[in-house]
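Q: Here's a chain of 198 amino acids. Please give me its 3D structure as tokens.
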Amino acid sequence: MTLDRFYPIFDSADWIDRLVPLGIKLVQLRIKDVTVDVARAHIRRAKETCAVYGCTLVINDHWQAAIDEGCDYIHLGQEDLDDADISAIRMAGLRLGVSTHDKTELARAMDLSPDYIALGPVYPTILKKMKWHEQGVARLTTWRDLIGDTPLVAIGGMSVARAEGAFDAGADVVAAVTDITLHASPEERVRAWLAATR
């Protein structure tokens, strides 16, 4: 499966319902600190919307719910890997994306034969407190050399203006979060992203 070059990440099905119809073809639902039932409800809604618009949906962290709801993709952070049943995920036919921040984490992730590797934060990010400082675009080139043909996702502080540099450095896909959700017009920003990545 070839991944779209633009990969927005949203924290609710509301955002997916609102913005996927604009032409998004790859999206992640990253919903934290909710009950399993609430997460499942968002996953179901997001899955329905993505099916209508031909968008690949990636579920962050909630691997059991993703299996139960018949999703196609799961994304796991390093902490998520500690608790996730990778065998169950693979047996259910889900594709797997994994976050990485250093070479130890990358080696752990590559042992799982992931369907993509994410590297971040490429630039400083306000999304969450992280123990890693910005990686810089040069690290994307290093990762590109280390992971071969595995798709590489750049995440963290990404903007439309920074996307080209990430692609030039070796990223296949650029993920965006607050650049869209905190924009005065998220719809306008999504259209700008689509224009820059298609």
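Q: Can you summarize the key feature?
A: Strands lie at 6-10, 26-29, 56-60, 73-76, 95-100, 116-119, 152-154, 173-176.
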